[in-house]
Amino acid sequence: MSAVKIADNIYWVGAVDFDSREFHGYEIPYGTTYNAYLIVDEKITLIDTVKEKFSNTLIQNISEIVDPARIDYVLANHVEPDHSGGLDSILDIAKAAQLITCSNGEKGLRAYYHQDWNFKIVKSGDILNTGRYNLEFIQTPMVHWPDNMMVYLEDTQMLFSNDAFGQHYASKERFDFEVDEKITLERAKDYYANIVLPFDAPVKKIFADLEGKDISMILPSHGLILKNTLTKILGKYKDWSDNITNENEAVIVYDSMWGSTKEMAEKIAEDFEKKGIQTKTFYLKEHHVSEIMSHIIEAKYICVGSSTLNRQMLPNVAAFLTYMKGLAPKNRIGLAFGSYGWSGESIKYVNEELEECKFEMMEPIKRQYKN
Ligand code: FEO
Q: Which of 118, 216, 222, 318 could pair with 166 in a Cys bridge, judged by C-beta atoms 3.0 to 4.6 Å apart?
């Protein structure tokens, strides 16, 4: 895909990855993009790069606008290789360019790439003047790694947000107003649930850092550029980072050996529905954990069921609980349930895992065979 003009002197020069389906355990059925942006001013600035295998695409896209050798500044707002993977290629061409990052960025990039690049270290509040534009750095550690930064371009009120406000969504469109609003909102929710959810305090800090700044456009490092959905997505980030849940939503997740735990899941769903609580039930042999997280993000009740196998919970359930525990949803009510033959440890272990999530627990439900 070619470079796309975003505004006068500002271009998208990244890559669209239609084929990827996995992102460190997160299933991404719609692929993703690695967004990089070029600001052409007296000094030429590249904001972030792409996954290594798309380095040639990045260079081709930049070449449609300027000779990449003329780049003066390369901003590395995040060490993770989906954004830093093109650094080696671009800095090999733009030999005089400074590589601008924060101190954690420098540490991470040196540890990953073992290159003695021309680093310049910045911190929150520092300004990079490129001629007519001033770029302000805002460090956003732990959204998603310790090295994350955003860049605010006051002259155009654009926020280059790196991982925050992204979506894993590959398409030929670059702006949210070119697709149905539902797509952007759903992809943003799925992304938050599977990437950003553990980092509620750092997300709240972003809002404090942005206080008083007008934002006309958010340009994340994944997915669509936000303009029309900007206010809605900012509002959603506030709710999600506050772990605001819907009292009328329950998610039921289970695996079942001979169908008994499945019947329990169906009965639990029926009981919730009778109380006016909407349920979504997921059989772990048919649904990926990351799809389920997208529902857990707004549900108050999280019910997890497993048959007992060899005195343990079923492996699918253990995998789900490990994944969910890492993402650390808070302010939930939990329920463990399951069928067993003679020992029944799975229910106890599921209950313990949910307790470790600090959920308020309901009394576990056990059933021997089909009693
Ligand atoms: Fe898109 Fe944390 O990398």
A: 222
